[in-house]
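pasting for the record
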Amino acid sequence: MIIRLPLLKFAVLCSLTCDVLSAAQMRLPEASEPVVRALTEFRAGRDRISVGGSMRADDARPIHEAFFAAVDVERVSGWDAAEIVEAPVFTFHPVKAQALREHLHHLAEQNAGAETVLAIATILRLPRSAGETADGVELLSRRLLMAPEVPSLLGSRYAGVVFGAIAGIPRKVAQERAEKILGMVEHLDPAASSGAVFEMQRYWRLAAPLSATKEQREALRLRLVAFVSAVLDSAERSSILTAQRPQIEQTLEALTIGVARGELVGHPAPALNFLWSSRPGLKTLADLKGKVVVLDFWATWCGPCIESFPKTRELTAFYRDFGVEIIGVTSLQGMIVLPGARPIDCKGDPEKETKLLGEFQTQQKVTWPVAVSREPVINPAYAILHLPCMVIIAPDGSVRHATVNPHSSLVDQRKLIDPILKEFGLKAPTD
């Protein structure tokens, strides 16, 4: 396959480098036909059983089993592995993920070149294994950043895997190689590297603090905005990108709103408007002004969200007699997943969905109010990239803490909340 990169004029600061031009002339192998066929069948099977993006484990498991019956992960190439890691095939098979990791380590030790770089990137994208050390991850991250093949791969169909691995490297390594990290985006081309668009928010979180000045940070942001805009403009020419258009639009919004310019923590909380709430009279976030507000962003299909409920229940009970309001924020998902049941389709029927949400609260013993926002629960204005995630707002309506982990202990949560209560002269717990 020949990757041809047209000369594109970005709106800001964009020029083609020699590295990207060399990618245009570089012939890169593709995944083998059996792997491509198995992945196609895997994705089609998941689509058949999916309701609103969610599915029962019992329904999904046979589809995963069929994939591994067709693909031996201990014999795949680096090109195969780069395609496999982009699909959620390891959900029920952590042992297979470990087997692929060990196989790729062997490839990386025995070979050199672009395939080895892809093997390293894929290892970094795989779920972390129990025996993997921080030193080992840092070593692989440094190898990836210094590999001369990276610019060419970033200008190719494998950009998503490589750019995603770069976006997830340890902050310690990123600080050591800040110039490398900041320069990676120069090698991306919207025509050939569109897969990287889905890693832009993670990359921005890593790269923005590495900028030496506000001007450099803003120049980087505008370069990312230009890249995402160009991918969005071309989305209609690709069925894959067309299906992912809402996600690309969300990424663009995340890079253009206040939070991307450093205007979240210490600034007024972005507006939230509620179309339904289990708390009577709650219509907007402004209705809670005067209290410390803990926004817990979640969804019924989100397993980690449900796992965090005991912690949130404990937090709610502890602050019951103080000026703290915990609100579980979700949005219409077009379906509800009740405990132990198949997803219930609610698409186009908000009344049905909110009624079932009340049943979910009862069944899961959700003791804090829940609200359905008009804004998406994966809310870029609050830097929400994954669920669950908490944001803490002061009584004056300013954001004090973002991206708080709901799984945190009560002791750690108190370190964030109690000082705000004392600052505003509100009753605070005593040790």
